[in-house]
């Protein structure tokens, strides 16, 4: 059972979509904050009821979210970030911390549009919904050590957290932001291969997804290089090397590398538009 945090602060979400929901659920479930310390606003009754179902307070509008919060997480679509922050600029004060999870929006723009100098940028990914997010954060110049500790605790509630310079964020988006989709394709392809080899569909999909989960867990928990783990299961003239040979013939590794690079370039284009 999670031990409740002794550092209680008020957390608000601007934008009450799926990522905000995942973070709020993880934070309250882990004991980092009680749900009563979290608030958001949303025009649709269905979203309001969903957040209220696990104890989050629903307030009248985004201005009240900012006014009532110590830390404000901006979780709206990137294309509306500028207008949202300009509208909320009068409600930010020096005592408040702005945290943005909007892809492609740089710290300098967040600071300019909000008038807020204490800013942290975070890039989580969709496995936050099951508590297995990969999140990367970078600090604005005026963000304090206490700010960093608090935001780290929030995102550790939904997975693992790394800190990196902002210059790496486009590549972070290309790898961990878009990466789950690449793995979903791989799972689907493995399952299709199992069906082609004669397995029932349900069994093939279950084996494929558990195999990917198990392999990822081996990398995380053993600390061994993936190549070392691959070699350990690859016997001379055996079944695995026969399969790997086909993957190499199809440029499997090169294609995945190209996918990350292409997504990174697209993120760079979007951040400049």
From TrEMBL:
Its EC number is 1.5.1.2. Pfam families: F420_oxidored, P5CR_dimer. One of its GO terms (molecular function) is pyrroline-5-carboxylate reductase activity. NADPH binds at residue 62. NADP(+) binds at residues 14-19. GO terms for cellular component: cytoplasm. It catalyses: L-proline + NADP(+) = (S)-1-pyrroline-5-carboxylate + NADPH + 2 H(+); L-proline + NAD(+) = (S)-1-pyrroline-5-carboxylate + NADH + 2 H(+). Keywords: Amino-acid biosynthesis, Cytoplasm, NADP, Oxidoreductase, Proline biosynthesis. InterPro entries: 6-PGluconate_DH-like_C_sf (IPR008927), NAD(P)-bd_dom_sf (IPR036291), P5C_Rdtase_cat_N (IPR028939), P5CR-like_CS (IPR053790), P5CR_dimer (IPR029036), Pyrroline-COOH_reductase (IPR000304). SUPFAM superfamilies: 6-phosphogluconate dehydrogenase C-terminal domain-like, NAD(P)-binding Rossmann-fold domains. Residues 166-270 form the Pyrroline-5-carboxylate reductase dimerisation domain. GO terms for biological process: L-proline biosynthetic process. The keyword Amino-acid biosynthesis applies. Residues 10-104 form the Pyrroline-5-carboxylate reductase catalytic N-terminal domain. It is found in: Cytoplasm. It comes from the Eukaryota. Pathway: Amino-acid biosynthesis; L-proline biosynthesis; L-proline from L-glutamate 5-semialdehyde: step 1/1. Belongs to the pyrroline-5-carboxylate reductase family. This is Pyrroline-5-carboxylate reductase.
